[in-house]
Amino acid sequence: MTWSAMGAAALALAVILGAFGAHGLKDRLDAYSLSVYEKAVFYHFVHGLGILIVSLLPKAGYLSQPQSSWVCGLLTAGIILFSGSLYVLAITRIPMLGAVTPFGGLSFIAAWLMLAWILLRNQA
To answer: Model-level pTM greater than 0.70?
Structure first.
């Protein structure tokens, strides 16, 4: 699977999970859990778009394919760890899952900083 396909699949999954939350969980979750779930969907969606955009940057000559793969891999890990832990936390209310979420956030930060560094370095 290409990173572009992965980005598109991540976006489709974000829409599916968002619709499930809005229609299937709205009467089952309290306000706090629903807000946690919505935050997971938001970050999932934003970073799915990130994967899609970053996957196209090698075609535009802004970075190499391996560089794009690293950034996309970190964004994917972030979606799994950050959004995934929040989805499960919202539904199960198992507080230990909150310990996983920051690792996803760090993965997001690392991806965006890596992209910035690569783009700045390639400008020279």
So the answer is: yes
